[in-house]
């Protein structure tokens, strides 16, 4: 395994020169949950709604970075790994090598406490990987380094295929661990003060919007099975992303976010503004009324407009930007306003450059970004870690896709910490914002009960 770390702000991440050997073989359908359950950490999963699904275990190469240059540092270290690729998936439908991982919300994030094992940026080329696309399912074995040997990789692939084929196609989902107790790291009176502080700053003209978040600590009745939780999330939130990043046995970061940060496929870039929330109704009529209240709310339309305009401005430097038609995005527990945004790139820009330009969007940070970041730092009383940050993959051509890690939590053993935030604008009411935050804990909390 090859490891590269940046020494801070310089962003100097260097992987030793070597060859990347990648061999893939198509297999019949297989349970990704069973694959993950059969492997020790480090392991990961990343799935887009109705699209690409990846699961990986072990590490063939790893890049970590911190500081303001972390996006660049990851990209250039990975470019070194991609400089000499021997892959049987380079043509045809078989998967090409991808680095998979993510970033912390802040570039000065310290990997401590529940976030130990989560640097400010961390990407891996998994040693063994499952890939599912519309075209089929593949097992891949990757190796990187000066001694990476195609014959050894072929033999490792034989073994990996054999063990994957022995897995069940469907694995029954176990019973959830059960929830013993929950604790809010931000009690309600503290939240009310935080929202008042934020709206005061907004009225004073310091900023227009800030997304404030809270954490919910959960004591479980027994140890949590993370592949099981992911499988339950797949069933309840089929139109959301799903991810797990689990560097060690101690803790994994996982969730089912509805929000795409960016997808780059050649010159086409897709992103979206997702902001403004309301619950779901118990009847179709009540549900439609709630959806209409989102569309009609001046406050929520203002919040959404700020996000759309900012994303369009951030992308304008890359090419022609098109704002799509606004719609209501309905999830099992909540509905949001969503506006798709696309860009035709004028030049060959790496997906990580676009991630850097967009993160954090005002859907998770605020506006102007620097004032919002300062407000979050002053007001919030917990560590965001990787919450609300970009998680995804990129390949040798600079294509890739990143989600925004909301509706998420860090879990391990018999405990978990869940995260949820809400956009605060001039007229925000602390009680309404509080109620929406509680809704946003539900995806993960319900899967633990
Ligand atoms: C920051 C979160 O949600 C964002 C995405 C959709 C709606 C949001 C809102 O209504 O404020 C937030 O911008 C979260 O779920 O933790």
Automatic annotation (TrEMBL):
EC code: 5.4.4.2
Keyword terms of this UniProt record: Isomerase
A GO term for molecular function: isochorismate synthase activity
Domain of life: Archaea
UniProt name for this protein: isochorismate synthase
Matching PANTHER family: ISOCHORISMATE SYNTHASE ENTC
Similarity comment: family membership: Belongs to the isochorismate synthase family.
Reaction equations catalysed: chorismate = isochorismate
Keyword Isomerase attached: yes
Domain Chorismate-utilising enzyme C-terminal span(s) in chain numbering: 188-440
